[in-house]
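2024-03-11 09:14:02 DEBUG pipeline.ingest accepted 1 chain
2024-03-11 09:14:02 DEBUG pipeline.ingest length=144
2024-03-11 09:14:03 DEBUG pipeline.predict start
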Amino acid sequence: MKLVLKAKRKLGFITRGCKKESFEDALHEKWETCNAIVHSWIMNSVSKDLLKEFWAEYDVLVPSQNCGCAREKEHTVRMHQQRLMQFLNGLNGTYDQARRQILMKTNEPTLNQAYALISQDESQQPMGNLSVTEKLDPFVYASR
């Protein structure tokens, strides 16, 4: 995480090297915006790790029967659909268009494919369009 923040020139927000008080009042709102973005990146990273842990625990508690039967295949498909929906529902409004495009696909993408599409969409958005003030679901980004 530190490496990513350093690459984006935002590491000072967590090391306290970039304090709001060190900027003139006119820049405080921009500082707050950058700080909120950094917080959302960290929350997203933590959230996906928690969700992965919950899913791994579920997989241990409710193991696959590996019988190759139709019922097992149906269960696996439902489980993947549920995880995809959980991921898509956790996205904030910034990703509404990308979410709709994923849901409209004739072949349902895997969770990793959906994540890749969202990441691609995110990388194409300018920083000012990030809706960091919206409430983020704590179990959002599952497949990172």
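2024-03-11 09:14:41 DEBUG pipeline.report Confidence is low (pLDDT under 50) at residues 128-144.
2024-03-11 09:14:41 DEBUG pipeline.predict end
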